[in-house]
Structure prediction request, 155 residues.
Amino acid sequence: MNGSVYEEVNYEKDAETEVQNIASEIDALVLAKSLDINKLENVARILFGIDPSNYTTAELKRDVLTFAKRNPQDFMDMVEDPTLEMEANVHRFFEEGLLTFRNGNKEVWYSTKSNKKKMINIPYGEDPYMMVSSFLKSDEGIDSLQLLESLLDSE
Prediction:
């Protein structure tokens, strides 16, 4: 009945699992500590949904390190995700007022000096930031992405 009712104590297996968990935590903390300020701000935007300009660098580092310690694998996966920068830029577009939500967050509109048109509709249950990111990566949205990025750089 070993494995169904009883489980055999296996100290070696338990130790291996614990060592793997500790090593993963260390790797995540080292990665979090090594992030430059831009990457740190991008991670904070995505992880916490905040505007990092309202926080000190020490506060951001503390929060990111704490997250990395508690969720090492999730943190490492997120930092190594190639879409991180795009998603962070989308958050910045909204923070800077270049894009806005209307109609109960169901529509995304441009809010630049030269363009006040609707960008996209957000389907029910979808993440609006992911939808904007997907649109801006598409052939249809690449020109909009370049314009929005140039407006961010000029500020």
The chain has two domains: 12-81, 88-154. The chain has a mean pLDDT of 89. DSSP finds seven helices and three strands in the chain. Residues 11-34 form the longest helix (24 residues).
